[in-house]
Inverse folding.
């Protein structure tokens, strides 16, 4: 199970920290060897990638969040975190964490696991 948390209402320019915890149950030792990431889906739009981190901590970001968002992972705690700063109205979306079945990131498919989503609303 992937449990995402940290969403909420924030004013433009504010910050939020999203966290996704991966339980042992059902995943066992899967985590440190696997890529992780965050996607988001805004109302009326398709789900899009936000930030990715692979099993050697190589990261990749959507152009729209570069310089504002930072993804990190804690293999001991089995968590992946998305630190978001300088939030904009267009960052409003439901944010989903993903645990890839591979050590590298790619287009998600049925082999991967999704969290339940956490809502981020940026509004004045």
């Amino acid at each position: 199970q992937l449990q995402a948390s940290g969403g909420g209402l924030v004013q433009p320019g504010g910050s939020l920290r999203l966290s996704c915890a991966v339980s042992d149950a059902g995943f066992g030792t899967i985590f440190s060897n696997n890529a992780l990431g965050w996607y988001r889906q805004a109302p009326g739009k398709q789900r899009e990638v936000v930030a990715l981190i692979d099993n050697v901590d190589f990261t990749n970001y959507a152009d729209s969040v570069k310089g504002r968002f930072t993804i990190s992972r804690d293999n001991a705690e089995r968590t992946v975190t998305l630190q978001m700063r300088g939030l904009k109205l267009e960052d409003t979306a439901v944010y989903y964490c993903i645990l890839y079945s591979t050590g590298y990131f790619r287009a998600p498919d049925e082999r991967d696991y999704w969290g339940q989503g956490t809502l981020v609303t940026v509004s004045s």
Q: What stands out?
A: The CA atoms of residues 51 and 61 lie 4 Å apart. The chain has a mean pLDDT of 94. The first strand starts at residue 2 and ends at 5. The radius of gyration is 14 Å.
